[in-house]
UniProtKB/TrEMBL annotation:
Assembly and binders: Homodimer.
GO molecular function terms noted in the UniProt entry: 5-(carboxyamino)imidazole ribonucleotide synthase activity
Keywords: ATP-binding, Ligase, Manganese, Nucleotide-binding, Purine biosynthesis
Phylogenetic lineage: Bacteria, Bacillati, Bacillota, Bacilli, Lactobacillales
Reaction(s) catalysed (UniProt annotation): 5-amino-1-(5-phospho-beta-D-ribosyl)imidazole + hydrogencarbonate + ATP = 5-carboxyamino-1-(5-phospho-D-ribosyl)imidazole + ADP + phosphate + 2 H(+)
PANTHER family found in the cross-reference section: PHOSPHORIBOSYLAMINOIMIDAZOLE CARBOXYLASE, PURINE BIOSYNTHESIS PROTEIN 6/7, PUR6/7
Pathway terms, separated by semicolons: Purine metabolism; IMP biosynthesis via de novo pathway; 5-amino-1-(5-phospho-D-ribosyl)imidazole-4-carboxylate from 5-amino-1-(5-phospho-D-ribosyl)imidazole (N5-CAIR route): step 1/2
UniProt-recorded name of the protein: N5-carboxyaminoimidazole ribonucleotide synthase
Length: 375
């Protein structure tokens, strides 16, 4: 049993982006005080919290200050140093521990964890040099994808390679950034994700299967429930529960799956935190992935998840936000989320829209026809 945390206590969050913001909003609703640590002054999470400590994520002195000021500490992303977590545990309760962080912040450890536990893994090879790369492509077939082992997100640190006519300089440049992993490119029929939350008693809240469509390797549209057969849902839920138990999950985690054209399921990635594909749970379910995160971290009971209505989420990147704002008054069905980031950039996640609808196919069609998302 972990320590139970109650309203009136203070939750510290490392990282103040949109995930931290939606976590903080859920915690505030329940009566907690919230302190954010983030280097950007007035970051999205700070805008809905009690206090911000402006500091880098690896600034140990500031992290210890945060730890001393809060009753329980959590994080919004996996790139928190596991050693640092062990250090700040001396000053406050860190119920998530560092096991899930260690496994998921490095693509090699993640793939090892997936294969050691006999979950279906994408064929891959570790690449430390151009020589390794040449040997690895002789074992894996084109098309392939080369990824940096650490720090990648939203398709950053990735190189897609279709055939031997690839650009050797690009390969060399990516490998010069650090160890890489080379993966076979799966012929995808769908991508799906399971968002699952747990308390320390391994009681789970499991959200209905979500289907994801990416553009330029960045999540574009999610819809729930996923349009897949029962056997795929059952298989992915079983894997998700088992991964949650093996990682001693506390709080919310998301497992991304690939489904190939022969309906074979692969575990792609594990995120030890709420996930972009789970944003639609805010409006579509009795508890959101952020509520479930707070419940798990505070060691409350985990409710059974109910889906009120099928839902679609579409991301608003830097190039989409202004045109989308201009259409707000035309769409009474839009649940509009603007994260309040001061710095808008092309392809940066700035907000999202959730639509509840019984007619998922035609709503997705309308999004695709809307000029907002042409780019
Ligand atoms: P991240 O989400 O950290 O950027 P991912 O490994 O999830 O990295 O890759 C982003 C997207 O790129 C995936 O959701 C998928 O659409 C595509 N992709 C990545 N790896 C593969 C692969 N091995 N086969 C097919 N598609 C892939
Ligand atoms: Mg991913």
């Amino acid at each position: 049993m972990n320590k139970v945390h109650l309203p009136g206590e203070t939750i510290g969050i490392i990282g103040g982006g949109q995930l931290g913001q939606m976590m903080a909003a859920s915690a505030k609703e329940k009566g907690f005080k919230v302190i954010i640590l983030d280097p950007t002054d007035n970051c999205p999470a700070a805008q809905v919290s009690d206090k911000q400590i402006v500091a880098e994520y690896d600034d140990l002195t500031s992290l210890i200050t945060l730890a001393k000021e809060c009753d329980v500490l959590t994080y919004e992303f996996e790139n928190v140093d596991a050693e640092t977590i062990n250090e700040i545990k001396k000053y406050t309760d860190v119920p998530q521990g560092s096991k899930a962080l260690l496994v998921t912040q490095n693509r090699i450890r993640e793939k090892e964890f997936i294969s050691e536990n006999h979950f279906p893994v994408v064929p891959h090879a570790i690449v430390n040099s151009v020589e390794d790369f040449v040997i690895a492509i002789s074992k894996l077939q084109y098309p392939i994808i080369l990824k940096t082992v650490e720090g990648g997100y939203d398709g950053k640190g990735q190189l897609r390679i279709d055939d031997e006519g690839y650009d050797k300089d690009e390969v060399e440049e990516l490998i010069s950034k650090g160890t890489c992993i080379l993966e076979s490119r799966i012929s995808l029929s769908k991508e799906v994700s399971v968002v699952i939350s747990s308390n320390s008693d391994h009681e789970h809240s499991v959200f209905p299967l979500i289907e994801n469509e990416h553009h330029n390797n960045i999540l574009h549209i999610s819809n729930c429930p996923a349009r897949v057969g029962t056997s795929i849902s059952v298989e992915t839920y079983e894997i998700a529960r088992s991964i949650a138990n093996k990682l001693d999950l506390v709080g919310t985690m998301c497992i991304e799956f690939f489904i190939d054209t022969e309906n074979k399921v692969y575990v792609n990635e594990i995120a030890p935190r709420p996930h972009n594909s789970g944003h639609l749970t805010i409006e579509a379910c009795n508890i959101s992935q952020f509520d479930a995160h707070i419940l798990g971290v505070c060691d409350w009971k985990m409710p059974e998840v109910k889906l009120f209505e099928p839902a679609i989420m579409v991301n608003l990147l830097g190039q989409h936000l202004e045109p989308a704002k201009n259409q707000i008054t035309d769409h009474e069905d839009w649940n509009f989320h603007d994260y309040g980031k001061s710095d808008s950039k092309y392809n940066r996640k700035m907000g999202h829209i959730t639509i509840l609808t019984e007619d998922v196919d035609s709503s997705i069609q309308q999004i695709k026809e809307n000029p907002i998302w042409n780019d």
